[in-house]
Amino acid sequence: MSTFTIFLVLIVVVAFLLIVVIMVQNPKGGGLSSSFGGGGTQQLGGVKKTTDFLDKSTWTLATLLLVLILVSNIAIDRGNAGIESKALDTDAQSTQPLPAVPTTNDTTTATPEDSAAE
C-alpha cells in the first residue's frame, strides 16, 4: 500500500467525520446539544459544553483535512516523468519545426469589400 493511498483513506475518513459532526450541530438548540441538555439538572456535559466540543471538533477536523490534502500532494508518486508538459520543455520547443505557411498567388481571394457587398 503506497503512502498516497494511506493519505487518501485518511482524507476520506476525516471528511466523513467532518460531515457527521456538522450534521449533528444545530444552531437553534436542536440536534445532539439539545438532547444532552434536555431540561433536567443532571446533564451529561450540558448544552454549552456540547456546543463547544462540536465547534472545536469541527475546526480540528477541517484543519486536519486541509493538512492531509496538502501533505498528500508530496506523497504522489510521479515516477521518472520529469517535465510532463512539452510547453515547459525548452529543448522540445527549439527542435520542433515550424508549420509551413502556404503561399498562394491566387487573385481570386475575397476582400472585405467583396464580402460586404454580398
TrEMBL record:
Transmembrane segments: 7-25, 58-76
UniProt keyword Membrane present: yes
Subcellular location: Cell membrane
Keyword set, alphabetical order: Cell membrane, Membrane, Protein transport, Translocation, Transmembrane, Transmembrane helix, Transport
Membrane topology, record value: Multi-pass membrane protein
GO molecular function annotations of the record: protein-transporting ATPase activity
GO annotation, cellular component aspect: plasma membrane
UniProt record, GO biological process: intracellular protein transmembrane transport; protein secretion; protein transport by the Sec complex
Disordered: annotated segments: 87-118
Domain of life of the native organism: Bacteria
Family: Belongs to the SecG family.
Reported function: Involved in protein export. Participates in an early event of protein translocation.
Protein name: Protein-export membrane protein SecG
Source organism (scientific name): Algibacter amylolyticus
